């Protein structure tokens, strides 16, 4: 897609440090890393969000995330990783081409868990849990 930074990377118009590539998926180092080894995994085809991906491509992207996680951790001797997708602008997605972050983590990095994302999470009672689950199941 024109004007998409990650499509330009796929096309070779913007240089990158590639760590994995196949016909459908590219993984490369984030240019502004949150930690050494911070890796982005993208489908080569332009789709904005996870829910826009065809199911087989979503599976390919996640398979690459799965395969790369050990390699990223080993490369920088990380104890753990945070694996995350900012899925849409309201969730902080800045590049509108779906990408999974693999961020190496350690006990000492001062980083936070995903539960630190929201300052005031809602209080949900059991009735509402039931309604929410039904709405997600769409019954
Ligand atoms: P988002 O906030 O959309 O989830 O994350 C976008 C990520 O892409 C950011 O972590 C940012 O550092 C990274 N990024 C943006 N432009 C480039 C680029 O041109 N090259 C690389 N390697 N990473 C980029
Ligand atoms: Zn794109």
Given the structure, what is the number of helices?
Answer: 3
- Number of DSSP strands? 5
Largest sheet: 5 strands, antiparallel
End-to-end Cα distance, whole Å, is 37 Å
What's the quick description here?
By secondary structure, this protein is α+β, with helices and mostly antiparallel strands. The chain is 29% helix and 18% strand.
Walk me through the structure.
The chain is of the alpha+beta class. It has helices at 5-10, 55-76, 126-137, and strands at 18-21, 25-29, 39-43, 80-84, 100-105. A hairpin with a 3-residue loop joins β1 (18-21) and β2. It is globular. Bound molecules: guanosine-5'-monophosphate (5GP) and zinc ion. Residues 1, 4, 6-7, 46, 97 line the site of zinc ion.
What's the topology here?
Layout: H1 5-10, E1 18-21, E2 25-29, E3 39-43, H2 55-76, E4 80-84, E5 100-105, H3 126-137
Antiparallel strand pairs: 1-2, 2-3, 3-5, 4-5
The structure holds guanosine-5'-monophosphate and zinc ion (ZN).
Zinc ion binds at residues 1, 4, 6-7, 46, 97.
Comma- or semicolon-separated keywords:
139 residues; alpha+beta; binds guanosine-5'-monophosphate
């Amino acid at each position: 897609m024109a004007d998409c930074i990650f499509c330009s990377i796929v096309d070779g118009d913007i240089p990158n440090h590639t760590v994995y590539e196949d016909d459908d998926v590219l993984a490369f180092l984030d240019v502004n890393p949150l930690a050494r080894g911070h890796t982005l995994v993208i489908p080569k085809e332009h789709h904005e969000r996870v829910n826009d991906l065809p199911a087989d491509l979503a599976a390919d992207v996640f398979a690459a995330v799965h395969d790369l996680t050990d390699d990223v951790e080993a490369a920088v001797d990380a104890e753990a990783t945070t694996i995350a997708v900012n899925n849409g602008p309201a969730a902080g997605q800045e590049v509108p081409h779906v990408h999974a972050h693999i961020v190496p983590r350690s006990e000492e990095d001062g980083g936070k868990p995903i539960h630190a994302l929201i300052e005031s999470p809602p209080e949900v009672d059991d009735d509402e849990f039931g309604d929410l689950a039904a709405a997600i199941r769409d019954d």
